[in-house]
Amino acid sequence: MNENYQSKRFRRSGTDRYLAGVCGGIAEFLKVDSNLVRLVLVVLTFFGFSGVFVYILAWLVMPAANEQRSMLEQIIRNFQGKPSEN
């Protein structure tokens, strides 16, 4: 694949992470500081926005930096009885 295509995909960060690397991955995609993304998530959570739910959903949908498939896709493949290849 083209290197520009790979760099423009949402992926969880492998290096800039506290929990699952979701905020770090979003920050890398948007080319902003990851602490800014974390701050926005916390502020939205305090104002009634379900930041925890969004974070968990993003964790399931976004593949890790070194993987091809997301956790949700691997769970679905396992449920269907298909091998969960990377």
Automatic annotation (TrEMBL):
It holds the Pfam family PspC. Residues 8-64 form the Phage shock protein PspC N-terminal domain. It is found in: Cell membrane. Keywords: Cell membrane, Membrane, Transmembrane, Transmembrane helix. The keyword Membrane applies. The chain crosses the membrane at residues 39-62. The keyword Transmembrane applies. It is a single-pass membrane protein. Coiled coil: none annotated. This is PspC domain-containing protein. InterPro entries: Phageshock_PspC_N (IPR007168), PspC (IPR052027). It comes from the Bacteria. PANTHER family: PHAGE SHOCK PROTEIN C.
